[in-house]
Design brief:
Length: about 375
Amino acid sequence: MKKCLYMLVAWTLAACSTGGGTPSETPKDQLVAKLFSHVEKGEILYGHQDDLCYGHAWKVEDWETDSLTRSDVKAVTGKYPAVMGFELGGIEMGDRKSLDSVDFGLIRKAAKLHAERGGVVTISWHPRNPLTGGDAWDVSSDQVVKSLLEGGELHDLFINTWLPRLGDFLESLGDTPVIFRPWHECSESWFWWGSRLCSADEYKALFRTTWQYLTETRGLPNLLWCYSPNGGCSPDDYMARYPGDDVIDLLGLDQYEFIAPDGFGPSGERFAAEVIRSLGFVHAFSIGHDKLMCLSETGLEGIPDPQWWTEVLYPAIKAFPIAYVLTWRNACDKPGHFYAAWDGFANAPDFQAFSELDSIVFLNP
Ligand code: BMA
């Protein structure tokens, strides 16, 4: 089976890295090997978005002097998340801060520090709408992707300004391996690169142009590429915009729970069933295409279910060889917008119990 071959490569790489690595081994190779070694042991890394930058009702004030030891996840579990997500929306404009008001200097420092502590970094990107001047959620035009491609009126801006700014930031991370996850949730239509806003070929060209620039033109050795449509789609829709085996390293899935009027019990059951259905076909594709897989974004906003971690999320993911599961951010300025428990929150004991499960991996401080 092809998977065995890929596993063999991963094992060889893992053996190399424990032996000090080889000169030709890139940061990307090292992270692939690390992720495979956890998957082989049946382990799932836990991840949290923006964990070191801010949390529920706090944020890093002076990032240049702050030692970045504060974390909502650590305050509850005693450990950092093994994976941390960071967001680059705004980097394409040359802004100093991201769309979530986080200084890009802080993001760089936090990502490098997390990797030095032994953690894994993933990066998302919600760029602005270059045609209308709106944000990533501005879906008023279905010409945006087309305008960025070769022959389009904004191709020059994309190739000579936006991608270089993105490339400069990613290059500034040095040897830090990064799971880069651009153009996400493409199976839905809430971003300007969504399924009703561009054709499958245009989407693939957008993804491949981004990959070509960063990987070939810039030669960045630290990027793993993740394709992450939204859940709730058919297997065919999931793969309809797949950019290609030569580009993608991980098959991701973004899937959130939303509470319906019948309450969090039945909503949690439906969410878990849907995650199991979707991860089922993502798993089949991951075998067929020799790729790692992950639950790239998930969560229940405000986590009103006191047992969400051990009775909803864990049963939904435990049977799948996902490299990691990442819950979204704990906003410091929106009191109800959080996806990890924080110290003193009602759901914290269950989050702690989740962190102590044998197959769930956090990062010891
Ligand atoms: C969304 C929300 C927004 C945020 C965006 C990008 O899901 O959390 O508040 O701006 O992600 O991080």
